[in-house]
Write a structure and sequence with these properties.
The chain has two domains: 171 residues, no CATH class; 97 residues, Pdz3 Domain. It is 50% helix and 23% strand. Strands 3, 4, 5, 6, 7, 8 and 9 form a seven-stranded antiparallel sheet that branches. Strands 1-2 form a two-stranded antiparallel ribbon. A hairpin with a 2-residue loop joins β8 and β9.
Length: 354
């Protein structure tokens, strides 16, 4: 129940803020908005009517929507407005999601951000009878380096291991306050996966401190964190194609995966009374939503922005019927992708610790 309620609350907040961004930009540009709805139809009641816009509460109480007018005075319709106005409307949702992300990250930094010291790769488990057990690995060891190459995350270690085809000969470990080297035998690849030759890895740290920052510094760090999330998502395809990040270390997340992550964060908050896990997950998701909606894929705001760009280059708009068909195909493809991602979310649940 905690997982379901947390997922509904977080996703509703993110979609509400996104649609509110579109509403604010539409009002500022003088576009006619017929309805701003909380939740999705059928309608339960009319909350208010202001400046030609109906504000409604709907039965499917999840998210929100903006319905622009299709008929009205010239200059008040989306299709009639200049390219700059239409682009601003399309950007509005992502901009407000980005601002929400910065706000939530600021709260995290101001109230207490975990700072890891002596970052290392943790040994989650060593399986009895395995090569790793015979070599001398033990549960809860910390791997500081491989062949002298320092590593701070599982991804760091896997990327290095794959660069040498798993032929790692020496691991530097920290155990019970003592640093020492462990000689690794040949005969099979080491650390090319998160579980290799009987040792299961996890991201870990020697110790973690909680640091609270002043509000000005918190705001600066929050802005950097939100922008890094957005830029990382945009840079991900190039990194995958360039082999800088292994494909099997990247996994898209659907609604079920988001429910799993927010549910775990909410459970941590309920157990500890510390808001940080839920705030941090929500801030990250808000920035990711801002970036995802700007991807140049049909059906998304970014896909619609592409058509505005094409119009700029051609000097005239494409036929509305053709553009709508392209977006319809994009939406169908996205729904198919969501189904595939949901299957993996259900069969291989996500964890905040992964």
């Amino acid at each position: 129940m905690t997982t379901i309620l947390a997922a509904i609350a977080v996703l509703s907040l993110l979609t509400f803020v996104h649609e509110l961004g579109h509403l604010l930009l539409a009002k500022r540009a003088g576009l006619r908005v017929e309805e701003f709805g909380l939740g999705y139809p059928p309608r339960l009641l009319l909350l208010a009517r202001h400046a030609g816009t109906e504000y409604t509460l709907n039965l499917i109480f999840f998210g929100a929507f903006v319905r622009l007018a299709e008929e009205g005075e010239p200059g008040t319709l989306f299709a009639d407005r200049p390219k700059r106005t239409r682009a601003g409307f399309l950007l509005g949702g992502s901009l407000l999601n980005l601002l929400l992300s910065i706000l939530l990250f600021s709260l995290c930094f101001a109230t207490g951000w975990p700072v890891a010291h002596d970052l290392a790769v943790g040994v989650q488990k060593v399986f009895p009878g395995s090569v790793a057990a015979a070599v001398g690995f033990q549960d809860h060891d910390l791997i500081l380096a491989a062949d002298g190459h320092e590593v701070s995350t599982v991804l760091d270690l896997i990327i290095y291991a794959r660069s040498v085809n798993g032929d790692i000969r020496n691991a530097t470990l920290l155990r019970n306050g003592r640093i020492f080297s462990l000689r690794l035998p040949s005969g099979g690849p080491w650390f090319v996966k998160s579980e290799s030759r009987g040792v299961q890895l996890r991201n870990d740290a020697g110790w973690v401190g909680i640091v609270s920052y002043s509000w000005p510094e918190a705001l600066g760090r929050a802005t950097g964190a939100a922008l890094n999330t957005v830029l990382s998502l945009f840079a991900l395809p190039a990194k995958l194609l360039g082999g800088r990040i292994p494909v099997d270390m990247v996994r898209p997340v659907g609604p079920v995966g988001i429910a799993q992550l927010t549910g775990q964060a909410a459970q941590e908050w309920a157990n500890s009374g510390w808001w940080f896990p839920l705030l941090q997950v929500t801030a990250t998701l808000s920035a990711a939503l801002a970036a995802t909606n700007l991807l140049p894929f049909p059906g998304l705001d970014g896909g619609r922005l592409v058509f505005v760009g094409i119009e700029t280059l051609r000097g005239q708009r494409l036929a509305a019927e053709k553009e709508n068909l392209v977006h319809l195909v994009g939406i169908v493809l996205m729904l198919m992708l969501i189904l595939v991602v949901t299957y993996y979310d259900i069969t291989a649940p996500l964890s905040l610790g992964r």
